[in-house]
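The instructor's notes for this session suggest beginning with a concrete chain rather than abstract definitions. Hand out the sequence below and ask the class to guess, before any prediction is shown, which regions might be ordered.
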Amino acid sequence: MNNADTAFIMVSAALVLLMTPGLALFYGGMVRRKNVLGTIMQSFILIALITFEWVYLGYTMSFGPDMGGLLGDLSWFGLSGVGIEPNPDYAPTIPQIVFMIYQCMFAVITPALITGAFAERMRFGPFLVFSLLWAILVYNPVCHWIWGAGGWLKAKGVLDFAGGLVVHLTCGAAALAAAIILGPRKGYGRENFFPHNLPMTLLGTGLLWFGWFGFNGGSALAADGIAGTAFVATHLGGMAGMAMWVLIEWFHTGKPTTLGAASGAIAGLATITPAAGFVGPNSAILIGLLAGIVCYLGVMAKSRFGYDDSLDVVGIHGLGGLLGTLCVGIFASKAVNPGGADGLLSGNVAQLGIQFLGVLAVGAYAFVISWILLKVIDAVMGLRVSEEDEVMGLDISEHSERAYE
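After discussion, reveal the predicted structure:
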């Protein structure tokens, strides 16, 4: 047991928790004023819902004793046997209860990220049902595949330092399914849906960026050099993503925008996430620059495909997670992290293929299960608010509140 490691992971867990209210503000500022509270509530309530799920099912399904490489068994149901003794399979220098709560914060924010895809049009009750079932059927299995002892993708050698696959690609695939099934917002393509409060979005961006140091740095699970490497790579990836996005936007539209700066920063942070502990500073900057290009083009392309991803979850998180995971296969180096692997540029061509396998398996699984869940819930409960309620806004129709008088 190491007191410094324990303190570091507890602080990191608090930082990751802060990301969910930060995300609520980030998304809340981008919607119209009649939907700001409904949008914020969709993120904030998941702190309660997913924590309940994590204590009783999520943690044991994700990290419990392996069952065939697909899931953990239920022996840790209700945190039975999860106490102050370390677990050597995961974090041998900190109490298992601390590792559990750190991972809980990842489980909370992942379904919250999906909410940006169906902002301004999904009913609150079906949203809660979808989020709970999605955590059980998508997040927990994928988490075990990649991070759980005995997980089949982990055994194949797939690397994901802090959640490019587990968090960003899963939520991006689910977001695509949700945007297609719910259909576009009323007036989409005919009206301009301007963000109602960009200062709120910039505040949310700052809180997310701040929390991301716990998200990526803490994933080293010790206060050591790998944590320092991930901390630096996180900042470099985020700033490079922001710089590239603003530069392209300036060239493309003639004006650099604060929304573009925020979007580019989040794209860079999401894309560096799977690689943060496996690459050096220059590779991190290059990954961030690539994120700014690829995610900008991805967001621009959604109108061509005709789906209404309200707040660009697919283009930023989905593409960012995909790109970052493949970048691990290119830029990873055992000179940076001996516990990782060499990538293409270090002479290991096979790692890129292994990373592609992870992208294909996780992306396909998350999309198919999300599609099925959404279709079933829609048939049973109805996903979408009525046209009248959509015009009125979710703040009044779903919560009987107004953000502004």
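Then share the key points. The first strand starts at residue 66 and ends at 67. DSSP finds 15 helices and two strands in the chain.
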